[in-house]
Amino acid sequence: MLPDTLPDAHHVTLQQIIDRVHEYMPGEDLTVLDKAYAYAKKVHADKKRISGHSYMSHLLAVGLTLATMRLDLPTITAGLLHGTLKEHSAGSSSKEEMEELFGADVVAIINGNTKITNVTFNSRMALQAENVRKMFLAMSADIRVLLVKLADRRHDMQTLQYLPAHRQAEVSRETMDLYAPLASRLGIDWLKRELEDLAFSFINPTEYRELATKIKTSVAERQIYVDRIKKLLSEKLTAHGLHDFHILGRPKHLYSIHRKLLAQKIPLEKVYDKVAFRIIVQTMGECYEVLGLVHSLWAPVSGRFKDFISTPKSNMYQSLHTSVVGPDGEFMEIQIRTEEMDQVAKEGIAAHWAYKEGRAVSQKDAHLFQWLKQLIQELKDLKDPREFLEAVKTEVRSAQVYVLTPGGEVKELPLDATPLDFAYSIHSKVGDHCVGAKVNGRIVPLRHALQNGDLVEIITSAKQQPSRAWLSIIKTSRARSHIRNWLNREEKERSLELGRELVERELRKHGISLKKESRSGHFQETLKTLGCSTLEELLRKAAYGKITTQAIIEALRPEEPREEEKLTGEPAKPAAPQKPAKDGGITIDGIGDILVKISRCCMPVPGDDIMGFITAGRGISIHKVNCPNFLATDPRRHVEVNWTSATRAVHRSQIHITANDKKGLIASVSKAISTNDANIIHLEATSTEEHLAKLTMDVEVEDLKHLNSLLQQLRQLEEVITVERK
Description:
By secondary structure, this protein is of the alpha+beta class. It folds into 5 domains: 3-203, Hypothetical protein af1432; 214-351, Beta Polymerase, domain 2 (2-Layer Sandwich), CATH 3.30.460; 484-568, no CATH class; 586-643, no CATH class; 651-725, Alpha-Beta Plaits. The strands form 5 sheets. Strands 1, 2, 3, 4, 5 and 6 form a 6-stranded mixed sheet that branches. β18 (679-687) and β19 form a beta hairpin. The longest helix is centred in the last third of the chain and has 33 residues, at 477-509.
């Protein structure tokens, strides 16, 4: 049964699931499904969904989707039981009970689909990131976790109208960005299309309704068009001696048409390939024969031919894709494949799944989700929730390019991937030492976007090292992870060197040898006093201002009089420990909990490109990247810093105004600043002999966008001649 002929999502019965499974598992003992249904009913009792329907209706809908995908019994059983673990108050005992009843495989799949509920996060994004991370880890061990999740998300989307509007938007966006691309990655194309259309209907409801109405009114006209093309193709293939073939014409799904309307900025009437044609033949050789016949009928569109037979997608999808200029100058998309290829295209990973026979996954099947295991490895070091989710979305997007190594090996990369991404896909050392690339024999810049079929050769140099600028070029998480790790290691080595230089210099002033002290028996106690476990940690903390050199001296020589005591003759008060800024809105790559200070010389605000300067025991001083004072400092003390996206605070900036010296000038300026929700915290005004007023004021703004808006407002004042920021 096709997915679009499934029963109503709220009225699925267990018998319908059993009947569906019997279609592809005749004679199989299905009592485990009865047992799972009874167990779920006991656990969920009278639990209702927001729609008012019973929770059991949701579990049955998920189970039927999995059965329709012709999956194995453990997967369908897990679908009926998902959500049971979080309902138990005693997690461990319930898990053991379920393993005894249904087996460890089933419980592992359920656990992979159980959301985190017992940990408190500081934002919804952090919670979402951790749930996605947990699911990906479970998926990397057993892809059936994802199959259950996709079936679960399908029914959630079918019943999304019962949620509040803001949750509809959130869930739909997550479905569009994450779950639809994952379905595509697994080759389950019908599910990907359905999820996209459902998400589209909630994200852009007006556009969805208008497009659906227009498409519906043109059904009869489109069917005439489909029949005409099918007749022409059938006659051509038959005349060539081919007889065992099928020609199908299906309308493209609404979201696909919507994207084309946006991309090409054309009305619906100008979208000629609203229908995709599929020609199914018996052999691979016939696929290429038919391609030649199609191109003899209609001229191919340049750049729109893709051969996924010789170069299958990572989900083992195989087909020939071509676009041609058909009758009356209308564009048509035609796909050509064998019966077996069509089965894979319909069912995706389920068409290969070896669990049905109770066997381990073959090496061929393992390739289908090898990318997933690699993705987990590359994402494991990403701690920031926003960065993690963006990396996941980038990697799971279905749009890919297929390029070749000089040895003929095919590499699959995201759309717009660069030679740097290609280099890191070969080996991290190749990426680290990449200085250039040749694409199809021609030298190209490292930011060049690779195209399907490109032959790529990487040029390396032992002297080359990763650059922070590369992070703005690369597209893959693999490359990003390697570059960040290299930069962080380099940063730590540099901070160690700077810390050693700083501490040794200060200790020498007090006649203390760091080398001797570090070898003494009491040094471990000194480290413990300073909150460090190793000398390296101590030196790094000193470099970043987390520990002052004075504190180190006092820990090594507690009996030595402090400078304050020498001057006053009285015991000095204990120095308050330096604490990192709580809300500075700054993050430092690879380092946390650091004292940061916004520099007064250039006064950067969020949105400015910034860098940090490691001061001598006073933490990190933040400057704009073009600040003259910063550019004059030792480059070895420079450190990459970024504004955090989550922080919302006010920041001080300085504005210089030259204006005609007229009565009411300051009042006009103050009103403009107040209107823009900014605040003046300091103002100096002088006048010149030329009757010009010079105003210098410190204002509080949220970010660069806010500051630029304020500057623009001030420039529009009649009296003002020039407005500049510091």
